Amino acid sequence: MLEQQNQVWTIRDLMKFTIDHLQGRGFDEARLTVELLLSHALQCQRIELYTHFDKPLSDEERKAFRGLYERRLAHEPVQYIVGTTSFMGLQFAVDKRVFIPRPETETLVEQLMMKCNQREAEEETRILDVGTGSGNIAVSLAKLIKRSRITSVDRSLEALEVARTNARAHGVAESIAFENADFFAPLESRFPHQFDFLVGNPPYVSIQEWQTLDPEVRQFEPKHAVSDQNDGYEFYRRIGEVAAQLVRKSGWVLVEVGHGQAERVSDLFRTAAFEEISVVNDLQDIPRVVMGRCS
Asked: What local confidence, expressed as pLDDT, does residue 121 receive?
């Protein structure tokens, strides 16, 4: 229908048709999806779609939108199609090289910010960000925490390219050291000092759960950034093993966990002799962050 050359399509017509079409195909957030794709195709703000509701679209504009729309029909995530996503009120470049930041991870950043705010103002805060991906955690912390020095580790060189791009875009590249490293390889000798905080949103989907994920995740997002290829707890066990070497005494470890994982991760932290272990729920009231103090 979008290819009909003789019909005049306004923004209103196109939005109504494609929203109904997406909903009929079972896609969530159909209106938001169409707004994002159409504003990207027209290179305008979303609000302008509504202030120019009756604007006729040219063949070129319809063609540009159709290309984006067909990618979404193939289940490619909207964030990859438009090339950006929002996190902590900031815009981050994302593509298939990196896991797409989720809103629930903002709870992790907020909890670390609260911990940092409890420190003496003149102290420099040293943070180790494990599995940085797009750099959303590191960049947000560098923007929001004064006198922070962040080391971000990822095994993927491609992911680090995206993270560096985001750090430069937000003017915090000088505050973040990006390291290409496998978290399961010896790390202690790579760093000349211990850290005040270790933070991470590790791959916590088990290999069994991976098979049940939506096609948006399984077909497009990097598998190693989503699943540990095991039981979902490999990275938490590893953090327990190396925290004493990487984090100073009385420093803190904060991690995001998947649905139903908080209790077992808390037990792993107790086994690692962490103290003051606590769990924080996200805005959907799901236990999302586990934190503990190194003894």
From this structure: 63
